[in-house]
Design brief:
Length: about 800
Amino acid sequence: MKKICLCFLLISNVLFSQDQDSAYKNASLSVEERVDNLLSLMTLEEKIGQLTTPLGWKMYSKNGDEVDISELYKEEIRARHIGGLWGLLRADPWTQKTLETGLHPREAAKITNEIQKYVIENSRLGIPLLLEEEAMHGHMAIGTTVFPTAIGQASTWNPELIKRMAETIAEEVRAQGANVGYGPIVDLARDPRWSRVEETFGEDPYLISEMGKSMVSGFQGNTAEDLKSGKHIAATLKHFAAYGVSEGGHNGGAVLVGERDLFQNYMYPVKEAVNSGILSIMTAYNSIDGIPSTAHKELLTNTLRQEWGFDGFVISDLGSIEGLQGSHHIVTTEVDAAAVAMNAGVDADLGGNGFDDALMNAVKADKVSEDRIDEAVRRVLKVKFKLGLFDNPYVDVENAEKVVRNPEHIELAKEVALQSVTMLKNENKLLPLSKNLKNIAVIGSNADLQYNQLGDYTAPQAEDNIVTVLEGIKNKMPQANIQYIKGTAVRDTTQTNIPAAVEAAKNAEVAIVVLGGSSARDFKTEYQETGAATVSASEDEILSDMESGEGYDRSTLQLMGKQLELLQAVVASGTPTVLVLIKGRPLLLNWPSENVPAILDAWYPGQQGGNAIADVLFGDFNPAGRLPVSVPKSVGQLPVYYNHWFPERRDYVEMDAKALYPFGHGLSYSEFEYSDLIVSVEGEGINTRVNLSVKVKNISDKDGDEVVQLYLRDMVSGVLSPVKQLRGFERVSIKSGETKNVHFEILPKELSLFNVDMEQVAEAGEFKVMIGASSEDIRLKTIFQLSENITINK
């Protein structure tokens, strides 16, 4: 009997030990319990491996139709115990992945399954990978849906539409087996010389935060079950912090902002995203007041973690840990770079060269504690468990082709493009154009180049995926005689034929001139290690069109090459001219604004841009896009954002200080009348609510959308405050003759500022409410009183 009991005890102990060693595989346990168990089983090498995210596109090989994981990937698992891959499915000139050598959706789903299967079966603990992908305006992979870039998304002023777009992108990413999407980008764009304006939601913290929250919700869903549903992904906010306002517009350069400006403006949309439950945040290349973002412990740990309660993981931007030594020169060794970044609050290394052995050596030298390593690993593992990767790391290979770029997604891409088109000018109601036109000239550098309308961070495209403006007009007007003359390139001046364009215009009833910029990379472009393009200005070769996109900062904002000369010649022909702009940043439009009767701004409108622009041109869609960024009159005015602090800006000797086209500007084929603004203040303390309502009537004979914008001014404040700031907006569809009531609710945080003690407070006193159609087109004003100081909880 004693022998039987002893055997039973031994067996029980073995089974208990096995249960303890695999508790992290038990889906019935909480995320915290599973993370605790798994972390307790890991070696230091395995922990540091979980923080390593190498370049993914090197981890497979493709030979014809055969796709297999590479020997490099197997070695990464064996030797480095990596925890994730970045850009496994990415294709572009930098990665050298083409339509032939890159992965199509079914192949992508197959290889991600094999990637996960291999790590699960060939590593000691079987920890699945985070597969992280660029996803700001569509998944940056072959065959996916391409939406307008972020500056165009913001031009819709429609957060619900952007949420639907983000849900679609997330579904496409997850269907192919990846599980993290990079976005939203919440950088403020206050200097259009900066190369990455196109990736932002513009210049205003409130608009950015509303769009950013929509993307977080669309990517991640709203519940824990959503993240595991196979249709959602973890979102990664970019770039922390204040990336978009470096001196001189130099990408990744020094940022000189005060603490109050930093928190009042640049950190506002970040905090809103954190409050929305975002799971990952990426550091930036810049420094802030002399401290690199990737080494900024005050922001990464004190602000993000301790004050705001962020519990996701922080990942470096590509190469930014190494950049502490090579770019910023604040350390002398790789070990010190790894230690500074880790101790500041960076949890994971994008690129795989910043932590790894350097971090291991930092731990051995007592420069980083193993407790801090555990903290970082815990944050990464928690996201993996929340995504359900330990329970279901695989996807249905056959489903990928059904989901990715399906007809509903293509239609949504068109809807976002339609709502983003912004009419800047429409003199004598030239637009919409008559569908009875017989002869149309389509002219310009961007009229028929598909990559020029897609923006940076876009994969190679099959030709029939993209509808250019010329194709859209032909689709709309099959009975018309349409003559296309390119006329000139975006930058290059050697391939120009302006006389042919003028002749085409003279023979037409209308000339549609499509100009602007380009972020189209090509396989001749040289790239930095970070993936940013290297500017080329060789006089011996035909210049690339690329003048925007990461790395392409500018010193001027004129239309490049001979584009303005082309436009001037076409206008001089006497034929009514419509200018369509496709570009990634605000450009100087002084001459067009004075001399061209109709101007549409489409930014980079994505794969359905041509059809969307044609619908607007010919009246099948009534435009209601609004500018998310101010358009300057001169580089000498910069910065020219609308919500600057008091005092009011004085004019220059040469010109006034106002923007050519202000923030929020955009015209419609309809006209709207505002009336009956009512304001009431209810509640007290943090529960105070300011309720506003206004009536908006469509007084035209066309149904249309109006973007009703609410601006506030703190009349007297203890520190400087903006001359006006957006604090509410709504895009409203109103039929001809119809009146709608539009309601807004303002919370104390939206009335707040950071006082002399850097406390966030809504100060008692008068606030002016301004309701209108843009930051300058104010239709109604009133005053309300806040009766008490209200401290905002951190």
